[in-house]
Automatic annotation (TrEMBL):
Residue ranges annotated for the ABC transporter domain, each copy included: 4-217
UniProt protein name: ATP-binding cassette domain-containing protein
DNA repair found in the keyword field: no
One Pfam family per UniProt: ABC_tran
PROSITE patterns registered for this protein in UniProt: ABC_TRANSPORTER_2
One example GO MF annotation: ATP binding
Organism for this UniProt entry: Nocardioides aquiterrae
InterPro entries documented for this protein: AAA+_ATPase, ABC_transporter-like_ATP-bd, ABC_transpr_LolD-like, P-loop_NTPase
Keywords of the record: ATP-binding, Nucleotide-binding
Domain of life according to the entry: Bacteria
Length: 217
């Protein structure tokens, strides 16, 4: 199956008595063109699942793959791109260079994608500024733009609206929906109902178990 596939994943941290089992037999999928929201209480395992989906870690058990290839071996942001909870921007670079970095690395001209994302995410007023001289919300939107600049096959976003006001939440949600509409498989870990409302599916985690899925009415 194409897109993101998580099959019977178990994952934890530490060893011996201090071992914490975080994910238990978790399966989910995001097909190309689908926006899947990952919901659940704090500590339920959303970020852990995002890390695995992004390929930052290899699952202890089960499989996490994009188009059949384990994400842990994928470094190409045209295949899997991510917005980590802490954004992961390069502090020494401008907003524009952060957004365009995946394109520079891939040898792709980012001009058209950058200007569309900068306008859609209200970055235009500070694109030449260093990211250190921008607000946390601006940094978060910069990280969203960076994840989408190559129109990745899979985009994984951890709480991408957490630092946004209402108007900017609307912009981020619209950009994520547009990315899915354009063919990306989009996985969004979020407490934000406004993301759940546009999602094709909401997968809920509780203590590392999938407890329900909801198809949009
Ligand atoms: N490196 C680690 N070592 C040990 N335990 C960890 C580690 N990372 C996460 N955990 C634990 O795993 C559990 C799940 O954490 P995770 O960050 O995935 O939850 P979350 O659902 O994203 O929470 P939040 O909504 O607060 O961001 C928590 O109990 C957390 O303390």
């Amino acid at each position: 199956m194409s897109g993101l596939r998580v099959v019977e994943v178990g994952h934890g941290y530490g060893a011996g008595a201090g071992r914490v089992e975080v994910l238990h037999d978790v399966s989910l999928a995001a097909a190309p063109g689908e926006l899947v929201a990952l919901a659940g209480p704090s500590g339920s395992g959303k970020s852990t699942l995002c890390h695995l989906a992004a390929g930052f870690e290899r699952p202890d058990r089960g499989e996490v793959a994009v188009d059949g290839v384990p994400t842990a071996g994928v470094t190409d942001w045209a295949v899997v791109a991510v917005v980590p909870q802490q954004h992961g921007l390069l502090a020494g670079l401008s907003v524009e260079d952060n957004v365009c970095l995946p394109a520079y690395r891939a040898g792709v001209d980012p001009t058209a994608a950058f200007s569309a994302l900068a306008e859609a995410l209200d970055l235009d007023a500070f694109t030449r500024r260093g990211v250190r001289e921008t607000s946390l919300g601006e940094q978060q939107r910069t990280a969203v733009a960076r994840a989408l600049v190559l129109s990745p096959r899979v985009a994984v976003l951890d709480e991408p609206t957490g630092h946004q006001d209402d108007d900017h939440v609307t912009q981020v949600v619209a950009v994520l929906a547009a990315a899915a509409h354009a063919g990306s498989a989009v996985l969004v870990a979020t407490h934000d109902r406004r993301v759940w409302e546009v999602a094709d599916r909401v997968v809920r985690l509780d203590e590392g178990h999938v407890v329900q899925g909801r198809h949009r009415a």
